[in-house]
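Weekly modeling sync, notes
Attendees: S.R. (lead), two postdocs, one rotation student

Agenda item 3: backlog of single-chain predictions. S.R. asked that every request posted to the team notebook include the full sequence so nobody has to chase files. The rotation student volunteered to paste the first one in as an example of the format we agreed on. Action items at the bottom.

Example entry:
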Amino acid sequence: MVQKPWNPESYARFGGLRLRPALDLMAQVGALPAGDVVDLGCGAGAAGPALAERFHDRRRIGVDISPEMLAEARARAVYSDLVEADVSLWRPETPPALIFSNAALHWLGDHATLLPHLAGLLAPGGMLAVQMPRQAFAPSHRFLRDFAAEMFPDRFDLAGWRSPVAAPADYYRMLAPFGQVSVWETDYLHRLEPTVGAHPVRRFTEATAMRPYLDPLTPGEAAAFIERYELALAAAYPPDPDGGVLFPFRRLFFTLTLYAR
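Predicted structure, as returned to the notebook:
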């Protein structure tokens, strides 16, 4: 199935909430060896200005598979270079000092192969810094799987579904042979403001988690799916009197500082 293009405007609707984890991850980056800074899965470049401020004296390379997102990133004028590539296949010209990836690697499978591969691309003493949502078992994401499998079993076979993000200890074990590892989780409690014509959580997920479920549906099917999702969200995340909601969201972080070779 060919996935529909990413919508930068829809993704940016909650830009401040999505940027906070990137800044929290960046705060854990210490001294680095010589080399470039890579924003892997940079999307529209939301983290680009902060990376440019922190690493103004280094080449900053953004890598993403979406040309629509890269066009937005290019407009920010904060990257030294932008590369359109599948992040799992991308290879740097020279070993980078930092591979920074905020909310991107959960879209890729086989982390047990991918992450050691990324570690092997780093310069000696370099750092891999990653943040991924770990929200798959929360109602906001579980409803999507449950309703898709029930309503459209011809399009969604989720019997063998597994979370795209593993347990924290799994990432520690994957990366510990390569250097010093730190792994942690943070539960953010987002206050989502009222939105016209939609539950605020649906507005939050429609640019990301909902995409694989809406893309194969006809407009009529999508409308029925969204209606059911909205009803379930209203029960799981009841609106405040003004229509806003409190939305807990879990994210997993880890850093690897490569052993000097």
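Discussion: group reviewed the output briefly. The first strand starts at residue 37 and ends at 40.
Action items: rotation student to repeat for the remaining queue; S.R. to check formatting next week.
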